[in-house]
């Protein structure tokens, strides 16, 4: 066990324990030469193999974890590079902008605020300048290449400071130990407990 700690402890916290075991072995009459030979042999094995040899798996009830190998495995799974076709991404963006504009016009009766990369040659830009709305169902000349050159400006005001107190409830957070009795019915306790000063609301 001490040799496994010596091989795996990078912080050096196990050094007193390891040194103490070696000293106890020599103080008990053990040969330093034989101990060094044993440590040389053990040095050829990794911690999982040492655990198997000395039956530590049976003591622990489960195998030890190789932290480095585990982290590398997680990185391989979680950091897989995804190769995306930029042309496909461009078409997806074009579809998104097209659907947004169509639904915005249907709901608001006007065009959303837009900008264009090539307004002179873009079919959408021409419709936008004329504020033409009746093209939605019948216009078949606007391809995704035109929509890919359309960029949506700010059309909505979003409040990032919502009032979350409207969805608060005060039954999930426990009280402090000194005021544990305030959550119980006073009629069952036989007295009215002192109310604590802590805040117990939690957002659901």
TrEMBL record:
Pfam families documented for this protein: Mononeg_RNA_pol (PF00946)
GO molecular function annotations of the record: ATP binding; mRNA 5'-cap (guanine-N7-)-methyltransferase activity; RNA-directed RNA polymerase activity
Source taxonomy: Eukaryota, Metazoa, Ecdysozoa, Nematoda, Enoplea
Membrane-spanning parts: none
Domain RdRp catalytic: 2-202
Record's protein name: RdRp catalytic domain-containing protein
């Amino acid at each position: 066990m001490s040799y496994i700690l010596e091989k795996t402890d990078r912080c050096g916290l196990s050094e007193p324990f390891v040194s103490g075991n070696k000293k106890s072995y020599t103080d008990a009459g053990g040969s330093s030469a034989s101990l060094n030979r044993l440590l040389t042999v053990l040095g050829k094995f990794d911690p999982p193999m040492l655990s198997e040899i000395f039956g530590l798996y049976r003591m622990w009830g489960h195998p030890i974890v190789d932290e480095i190998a585990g982290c590398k495995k997680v990185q391989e799974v979680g950091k897989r590079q995804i190769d995306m076709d930029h042309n496909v991404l461009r078409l997806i963006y074009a579809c998104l902008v097209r659907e947004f504009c169509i639904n915005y016009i249907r709901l608001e009766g006007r065009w959303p605020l837009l900008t264009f990369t090539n307004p002179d040659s873009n079919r959408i830009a021409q419709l936008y300048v004329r504020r033409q709305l009746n093209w939605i169902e019948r216009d078949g000349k606007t391809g995704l290449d035109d929509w890919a050159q359309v960029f949506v400006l700010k059309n909505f005001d979003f409040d990032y400071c919502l009032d979350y107190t409207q969805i608060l409830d005060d039954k999930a957070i426990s009280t402090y130990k000194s005021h544990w009795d305030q959550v119980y019915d006073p009629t069952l306790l036989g007295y009215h407990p002192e109310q604590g000063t802590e805040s117990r609301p939690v957002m659901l």
